[in-house]
Amino acid sequence: MTLEWRNASKAYGKKRAVNDFSLEVPKGELLVLVGPSGCGKTTSLRMINRLVDPSSGKILVDGRDVSEIPVTELRRHIGYVIQQVGLFPHMNVAENIGAVPRLLKWNKVKIQARVRELLDLVGLPADDYSEAWPAHLSGGEAQRVGVARALAADPPILLMDEPFGAVDPLTREVLQREFLRIRSTLKKTVVFVTHDLDEAIRLGDCIAVMNGGRLVAAAAPGELLLNANPFIRDFTGEDRALRRLARLSVGDTIGQTTPIAPGGYGDSGTPTGLIRTDATLKEALSLMLEAGESSLNAVSPSGRHMGKLTMENLLENAAGIGVS
Predict the structure, then answer these.
(1) Exposure of 145 by Cβ count < 10 A (0-12 exposed, 13-18 middle, 19+ buried)?
(2) Could you report the per-residue pLDDT of 17-73, keeping only the tens digit for each?
(3) d(CA 273, CA 23)
(4) Nearest to 294 by CA among 276, 280, 273
(5) d(CA 160, CA 165)
(6) pLDDT tier for residue 222 given thresholds of 50, 70 and 90
(7) What would the DSSP string read from start to end of 175-225?
(8) Which of 10, 132, 169, 218 ranks highest by number of CB atoms within 10 Å?
(9) Choice between 252 and 255, residue whose per-residue pLDDT is larger
């Protein structure tokens, strides 16, 4: 499903939390809303599932004004994940995930199958977690269950409001990686709110930066980090070149610059001077500096030699040459 804010505003008394916000999200795209605290990003997200109604303007889902769609019908097509997770404490994990399908009158066998499927998808074995209670879960486990619950009825739209903000940095990185894997499988239209620019760059197809309730800019991560707008440059920080490297993978870069080489390393391990194609360019730079090397041989996860990554490649991408 496509999403669109069309001149949407939300006022609380004389204060406008969102001011004339217009933006479209194509089907299957992940949009990240970022900006300073109080900029209107969460209010903009909540307009989509009518937790907040705009004071003026429209929110469209597949061309339909959400104000004309019954709330119950609308929310059946929208999954919602929040920072606090909000699992029902009196229900075990399986019951939490199956809550919406039960409301939709799915039969018991179908619900059980869906619960197992989703627990496997989020990396929590069903045999170990189905009967677990929310109070016994770690923060990362609870967040995974929250994602599974939001996906239970297979909604085409997923709204995520600071979903990984309450966990420690290591768990957050794991959850981000798992979410990217899940998203590549499901192809949902996603709106994701975060205050963490690095998270936005890592996850988003498009990043929309807001300030004072207004949209400042919306662009693909690489383009945004090259934006000359003073607010954008200040918001993205002086290390935006490193942030560009964190967005790009080794495989993306050698695919542009180096022909695939024959041969492989099989199961013999990863010799010194090699970098996997699924590593980021930031990780490659760190390895080069640590090893005192000016180039690395890139190998696929299976060990096949794919080409060479040079310091020149990294510098070109850090400077924005060839970044889309």
Answers:
(1) buried
(2) 999 999 999 999 999 999 999 999 999 999 999 999 999 999 999 999 999 999 989
(3) 44
(4) 273
(5) 11
(6) confident
(7) HHHHHHHHHHHH--EEEEE-S-HHHHHHH-SEEEEEETTEEEEEE-HHHHT
(8) 10
(9) 252
CA distances to 34, 146, 173, 183, 267 from 139, rounded to whole Å, are 23, 10, 13, 21, 36
Rounded to whole angstroms, the Cα distance separating 264 from 246 reads: 26
For the chain, what is the largest distance between any 2 Cα atoms, rounded to a whole number of angstroms?
A: 68
CA 284/CA 277 separation, integer angstroms: 10
Reported pTM: 0.81
What CA–CA distance (Å, rounded) separates 34 from 160?
12
How wide is the angle at C-alpha 225 spanned by C-alphas 221 and 228, nearest 5°? Answer: 135
Question: Rounded distance, CA 81 to CA 84, Å?
Answer: 9
SS3 43: helix
Please tell me which residue, 282 or 20, carries the higher pLDDT value.
Answer: 20
Q: Where are the alpha helices (DSSP H) in 30-70?
A: 41-48
Q: Which residues contact 68 (CB under 8 A, 6 or more apart)?
A: none
Task: Give me 138's structure tokens.
Answer: 């770690």
Where do the domains of the chain lie, and which CATH numbers do they carry? 3-238 (3.40.50.300), 246-318 (3.90.1280.20)
57 phi and psi, to 5 degrees?
85, -175
> Mind listing the pLDDT tens digit for each residue in 113-165?
999 999 999 989 999 999 999 999 998 899 899 999 999 999 999 999 998 88
C-alpha dist (Å) from residue 323 to 226, 248, 275, 313? 9, 9, 21, 11
Partnered with residue 205 across adjacent β-strands are none
Q: Are 37 and 25 in contact (CB under 8 A)?
A: no
